[in-house]
Amino acid sequence: MTRVIAIANQKGGTGKTTTAINLAAGLARHDPAQRVLLVDVDPQANTTAVFLGVPFAAGPRQPGAPTVYEVILGEMQAADVIHAVTLPTNGDGAPITLDILPSHLDLASAELELVNAFERERQLHQALVPVLDRYRFVVIDCPPSLGLLTVNALMAATEVLIPVDPGLFPIIGLNLLQRTINMVRRANPRLQVLGVLPTLLDRTALARDTQQELADAFGGRLLPAIPRRVAIGEAHAAGQDIFAYDAGSDGAQAYEELIREIVNRG
Ligand SMILES: Nc1ncnc2c1ncn2[C@@H]1O[C@H](COP(=O)(O)OP(=O)(O)OP(=O)(O)O)[C@@H](O)[C@H]1O
Ligand SMILES: [Mg+2]
């Protein structure tokens, strides 16, 4: 069975995109035989910019370069829109590929067009069904909102991973997200909460207190934290996953531990 993991939190800047990129690339590196698809449903198209470049993500639309926008609106088949990117490797092992279903700034208007569509919450799920059995993992990067695009991602997902910034009082926002997840589960009962992931963890007293609150509230569903590290932000800015940018860094080690945990929970 394909594990479809939506990375969601309506709060902005909690490390969703960074986690989607490093999780998808890390899973592909973990076992190259198990193929991974990374789906960008955020109109900010940050994930797309990292792997396919800023002009693709935010430049004028190229006629031959459709995106998840056309897929969600049912105008294109997902299979015809997916790009295979080759991840840089340090050794001479077999090349590792990651498949990307890209976004574009225009996706913001798709959300409006979707409002009147039949089964508007299920469009992404329906579009992914024909390609699902090619993949062991599908990772979906969501926008910072609880709008139709995030609901489409949750409807397509079997699991949701929630990155939180422990320095930003995350608990209140989590209640709101949990309500949305509960609502989606009525229509998509397969959806499980994979876990809450503290990202951007630093050594402040506030972060330590929040980490304790999260542990109390989520117990076994609290995932091993990702520390705030310059290399993680730099990798993102350089258009690389952390394993390509600095495989020996403790940021890479933290993401590796997260991946082991996620593979073990499967
Ligand atoms: N562990 C980390 N250490 C240092 N910087 C980080 C870390 N995680 C993310 N960042 C940086 O924090 C910023 C926000 O991260 P990111 O874009 O992943 O968040 P997001 O939740 O996807 O944001 P949005 O809600 O806008 O989509 C980025 O500049 C990113 O490079
Ligand atoms: Mg993002």
Count of individual helical segments: 12
Query: Structural class, from helix and strand content?
Result: alpha/beta
Mean pLDDT: 92
- Strand percentage, roughly? 5-15%
Radius of gyration (Å): 17 Å
Name the helix and strand elements from N-terminus to C-terminus, one letter apiece. Answer: EHEHHHEEHHEHEHEHHHH
CATH class: Alpha Beta
Span of the ends, CA to CA: 10 Å
Cofactors and ligands: adenosine-5'-triphosphate, magnesium ion
The low-pLDDT segments are none
CATH architecture name: 3-Layer(aba) Sandwich
How many structural domains does the protein architecture include?
A: 1
Percentage of residues in helical conformation: 40-55%
Number of strands: 7
> What does the main sheet amount to?
7 strands, mixed
Report what the structure shows:
The chain is an alpha/beta fold and 266 residues long. The chain is 43% helix and 15% strand. It has a single domain, classed as 3-Layer(aba) Sandwich (Rossmann fold), CATH 3.40.50.300. The protein binds adenosine-5'-triphosphate and magnesium ion.
State the gist of this model:
This protein is of the alpha/beta class. The protein is 43% helix and 15% strand.
Annotation keywords:
Rossmann fold, binds magnesium ion, alpha/beta, globular, single chain, 7-stranded mixed beta sheet, binds adenosine-5'-triphosphate, 266 residues
